[in-house]
Design brief:
The complex is a heterodimer of chains A (about 325) and B (about 110).
Chain A lengths: L6 H5 L14 H7 L4 H13 L7 H70 L3 H14 L4 E11 L25 H13 L4 E4 L2 E2 L6 E4 L2 E4 L2 E3 L3 E6 L4 H6 L2 H13 L2 E12 L37
Antiparallel strand pairs in A: 1-7, 1-8, 2-3, 2-7, 4-5, 5-6
Chain B lengths: L1 H16 L11 H21 L4 H25 L2 H28 L2
The chains are: A alpha+beta (about 325), B mainly alpha (about 110).
């Protein structure tokens, strides 16, 4: 830094050779005269030696190189900043599209499995006595490997409003444990109550409940047979025509009405006709072994006893 | 005129070549950009003041970029990288503002 003279005066060529002085108040100096001191020094020197602004070829080349570098720097920095974000979003998008593709493939396979199953059923029925075939179908519907259509009830559960922080007014930072939240136990309780009220087939968001179904919470998502569900949870139950009324009259329904009134959990109980409950995903057959090896016991999943279990399956 | 062209050439080169910056150098890029901008605006202002000097410009450009990077590097090693970066940005930012204000006075007389 030279003295605090404004550059206008150096321009006129005042020729007093002052030593370069560093002002004690550096910041004030910086604000007052932000130009690099070297420029004024050089100008003073030129004025002293009486030369005009020198125009040298090397100077020109160097200056041009410096400016090209400055431009390059700007472009590179810009690209770097722009590139930094898309990389993470790219990964995310790729993963999301992978998931979507996987889901599509799974749906396709499921559809073909359903077709093959109906074929198998038809072929089997053609080889059986009519009464046996009907009995088999009833058993299949009970066990859950056959899609079912009929009248029944639809219970819908969804989280209540996320509580807001009273100070900041923003949603609570940890909304996982607020009281209006639907938990796996809620779905288990409702499913069990529906079984007790005479439901014959139940699905939650299109996932059929069977004897081996599990309704569990993993992280913050509820899974039915390891398929993660998202809100709202639509529990479709096929059963007697007055299933909705029966359910509505139970203590369980009262409890959920109370949860609705107190914590804002969204609960609705609707009577519906022509409901459709899909078949369960094929699960590996599990065989029970009799204690005595002399008796052979047939055991497919689901012994058709409608006793409610803790997992909400049948 | 040539100066503007040279900078445009630099930007075009950067866009076309898309040079990848080594990961180790990436933290210094923003600071280097601010330092380079300071040198460029200082040069423009000197030019308008009629005291532009090639040597001074080139040296201030190189030293600005290097010193800024060095300060950030040192700060990173000492564990005060963020604060030192802020310091560099404040000082250079003040200079850029002052020089741009001077350029503005030259160009618009306001």
């Amino acid at each position: 830094m030279t003295s605090a003279r404004p550059p206008e005066r150096t321009e006129t060529g005042s020729d007093d050779e002052r030593p370069r002085v560093y002002a004690p108040d550096f910041l004030t100096e910086l604000f007052r005269n932000p130009l690099d001191a070297g420029y004024t020094d050089a100008a003073e020197q030129r004025a002293a030696t009486g030369g005009a602004v020198r125009y040298r070829r090397t100077g020109f080349v160097l200056r041009t190189i410096a400016l090209v570098l400055a431009g390059l720097l700007l472009a590179v920095a810009y690209q770097q900043t722009v590139r930094a974000k898309p990389e993470s979003t790219d990964v995310r998008n790729n993963l999301a599209s992978d998931v979507v593709a996987g889901q599509k493939e799974a749906a396709e396979l499921q559809r073909s499995a359903d077709q093959l199953r109906t074929q198998v059923t038809r072929l089997r029925d053609s080889g059986l006595v009519a009464s046996d075939a009907a009995a088999l179908r009833n058993l299949e519907a009970t066990v859950g490997v056959q899609a079912v259509t009929g009248n029944g009830a639809v219970i819908t559960l969804a989280d209540g409003p996320v509580p807001t922080d009273p100070v900041t007014g923003r949603p609570d930072t940890n909304p996982d444990d607020f009281l209006g939240r639907v938990l796996d136990t809620d779905l288990q309780i409702v499913a069990n109550e529906l079984w007790r009220d005479g439901a014959e087939a139940i699905s939650i968001n299109g996932q059929r409940l069977t004897a081996t179904s599990a309704i569990r919470i993993a992280g913050s998502a509820i899974q039915v047979d390891f398929v993660p569900l998202s809100q709202p949870y639509v529990i479709t139950a096929i059963g007697p025509a007055n299933l909705a009324d029966r359910f509505s009259a139970t203590a369980t329904a009262d409890e959920y009405r109370r949860l609705h009134d107190t914590y804002g959990m969204r609960v609705s109980i609707d009577k519906r006709s022509k409901l459709n409950v899909p078949a369960a995903l094929d699960s590996a057959l599990q065989y029970a072994k009799p204690l005595q090896a002399t008796k052979s016991a047939p055991a497919t999943p689901g012994s058709a006893s409608p006793s409610p279990s803790t997992t909400g399956g049948r | 005129m040539w100066a503007v062209l040279a900078m445009i050439v630099g930007v075009v080169l950067g866009v076309v070549l898309e040079p990848t910056v080594p990961l180790a150098l990436q933290p210094y890029l923003p600071i280097a950009v601010v330092a380079a901008l300071d040198a460029v605006f200082g040069g423009i202002r000197a030019r308008l003041d009629g005291i532009f000097d090639d040597k001074q410009f080139v040296i201030s450009f190189i030293s600005n970029v290097l010193v800024a990077a060095l300060i950030v590097y040192l700060g990173d090693k000492l564990g005060v990288g963020g604060q030192l970066s802020t310091g560099v940005v404040v000082v250079l930012g003040v200079r850029i503002f002052g020089n741009v204000a001077a350029i503005r006075r030259h160009l618009f007389r306001a």
